[in-house]
Design brief:
two-stranded parallel sheet; 33% helix; extended; mainly alpha; 2 strands; single chain; 139 residues
């Protein structure tokens, strides 16, 4: 609760683990997940969650392995599905020109060139010293 200001004990939030889905154990083992094997189990898990928690109005997929199954859950349940991809889209689109209305044409189009980036190069020395995960001694 203190980390995200949400009480997971609140009955408005229903947590359902995917660990029992056949093939999903690959996540914990650090192996590649067999999408075709796992997808039916994830969809079945979502449908069963709705039977258990019929007042549910959306799904929030916490694991970064789950966005690949979001469309299948949407199609099977008709409910909104939020995940790491929709969260990123939300933040990215909050900075982009909305060409549907308002002040249009103010933002330059992306030139398709990606800037070079080295892990941690945007950090101050103090911030680098606080890093827990370090990819090299060059930091």
């Amino acid at each position: 609760r203190s980390g995200c200001s949400a009480d997971i004990g609140d009955d408005r939030f229903n947590i359902v683990g995917a660990g029992s889905v056949p093939g999903f154990e690959a996540v914990n083992l650090g192996n590649k997940v067999d999408f075709d094997l796992v997808q039916p189990g994830i969809v079945e898990l979502a449908k069963n969650a709705l039977k258990e928690f019929p007042k549910s109005r959306a799904f929030c997929l916490e694991c970064t392995e789950l966005p690949a199954y979001a469309d299948a859950i949407r199609a099977a349940t008709g409910l909104p599905v939020f995940d790491a991809i929709t969260a990123c889209d939300f933040f990215i689109n909050s900075k982009r020109d909305n060409n549907h209305f308002g002040n249009n044409g103010w933002q330059k189009k992306w030139d398709g060139k990606q800037e070079d980036y080295t892990y941690g190069s945007n950090l101050t020395e103090e911030q680098k010293g606080k890093l827990v995960n370090k990819c090299s001694d060059s930091l």
